[in-house]
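Quick question about two entries, pasted in order.
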Amino acid sequence: MALAAVPRYADGRGARRLRVGIAGIGAAGQAFIAPLQGHAGFDWVAVAEPDAALRTRMQQAHGVSGHATLAEMLAQAEVDAVYIATPTPLHAGQVAQAAAAGKHVLVEKPMASTLADARAMVDAAARAGVQLLVGHSHSHDAPIAAMRGLIEAGELGRVRMVHTWCYTDWVHRPRRAEELDAGQGGGVTFRQGAHQFDILRLLCGGRARSVRAQAFDWDPARPTTGAHSAFITFDGGAVATAVYNGYGGFASTDLGFGISEWGHPPAAGPRPPRLRAATPADELKAKQARAATAIPARAPHQPFFGLTLVSCERGDIRQSADGLLVCTADGVREVAVSLDRSPRERVLDEWHAALSGGAPALHDGRWGLATLELCVAALASSAQGCELPLHEQVAVR
């Protein structure tokens, strides 16, 4: 089904813009505020947030209309599209709501906690003729996009192996209960593996064949899936591994030139102590306090979501501090990477191009479903102790 026409309006300079409402204004929602406000194709005009104090603060600080629920925002605000940044268990129902109202949707990853919900989201968007995009922001990181560009150029031949390693303190950051519950799309395999698997699919052509994984839960004081190691095969013969450890020991900054996940040097001094919140209310308060600064809009270096190493037939590629190192039989050269657009600005670029007819979206609902399938299958593989085939995969366009 063709996409519905986007009812854009003209500003005083004649530019055609899209009006966006944000549903959920936690760390992910707040991370999109500056990119939306600075984007030539969007205006942020409304927010749906059940926390009255936070909603009021957003209204006063940014001049947007405030609504207690998504349904209220859809009924009262003039929006063309919605960014859904609410907890994962709410995504399926809210995407269906927005699609039924004729609104295009960008939904935060993981797009859902079950494949059935993800399929229902894809179907709802198709029935309504609206665009569904899944915001896998780390595959928009400048070095990952540049790696894909080198692969497509063909100089190094076909991709044969890709390995990505990420070590953080994810488990011990402030969390809502559902962020730690795999049944609700929580734990590192759903919430961080979604980034890793999305990156690997982008670099290996998209169509994964199978996965064999082991997930770990080794801190009884913080029960959740806190680490995983996965081996993935792809159509065309490429293979990939994804390692994630969120228990706060070794840090990826030690693999990546002292640069953090979002492109900043780590804070000076010792690492903060592991979180041991006294009550869920205390932990929620800590999470809300962290939300405004958790994901910076700009950084002095490129994002460094762990170490990613691509092996092609005629050479290898990995990140440098501010670019890529390309290693071949002729030596090592550094390729500069442009930092003119942040990952979330690149997500918005893709969304706007899809809505304005400039280019079809890669990270659409079907792509998001394929990435989610890897998360689900990795956990199932760990539980069953075997390699599992994949059935929802799509190729890079």
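Here is the second entry:
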Amino acid sequence: MRIGVIGGGAWGTALAQVAAQAKSQSVEPVLLWAREAEVVRAINTTHENPLFLPGVPLHHDVMATGDLGALADCEALLVVVPAQHLRGVLAEALVGTTPLVLCAKGIEAGTRLLVSEVAAQLHPGAPIAVLSGPTFAHEVAAGLPTAVTLACADAALGARLADRLAGPALRPYLSSDVVGAEIGGAVKNVLAIACGVVEGAGLGQNARAALIARGFAEMTRFGLARGARAETLTGLSGLGDLVLTCSSVSSRNFALGVGLGQGRSAAEMLADKRSVAEGAFTAPVLREAAAGAGVEMPVVTAVCALLEGGPVANVVGTLLSRPLAREQ
């Protein structure tokens, strides 16, 4: 199975590396599309992506291109562009009936569509899969042990994709719950910002643990309202990813929260960044989507208030002064 990767950031590069090294790899090289000419040039000449994944030697079968049309002959496309840019990029791609493996995490602003819904709208003939889970790109590229959810409604296609991408250090777990895998990845980015705020403001480990638990309750409520299965949300793409991104400064979203907790502005930290803290863009969309579904998400609402410039003490005070309720 010839694999193409759309997106030359850290995660796209790491997935190209995985696909090139996979135990069941085909004889064809993995072709990675990047918008940045310097990324294409560096990968093809020095076998490294110094802009987004410095210090990681890339497999000789990872090749790069700046021409989306060059991926037309691929048998599966891993789509690894940020959620808010996915529509524009996919609109230019020649897809047809080529399976799309969506690796972005977020909800589209304006439409409130999940990434899979955007892809299906643009390319209704393409089978859809979602790859999500606790994955720091630099660890995956370095070959450290990682497990992910690979969700696909077509069981046979899911099995083929899993077999193609699996390697000694990457273990895909199959699921048919595309919606659940997506919602876990989108919501955890917002909750990671909240946990970073706890760290930056020095609110303690008790507060972080409570926030993870209550945030997971919000993820579950929203996911079930959107048709996700509870077992998906307790799996790698939900709880697993939540634990990872809520506990490490390697998470861009957690790092953004740390800065907010220290009193820095979101605008300052998001300016001129090549790597995207997707949770900052997902938070207001998620707040709207939750309201539309009649789902209460106070932690998400608090993150929105912080991103909009609300003082940390005031936002935390509002959360802590909510009426007492039963745990659910």
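Reply: The radius of gyration is 19 Å. The first helix runs from residue 10 to 21. Hope that helps.
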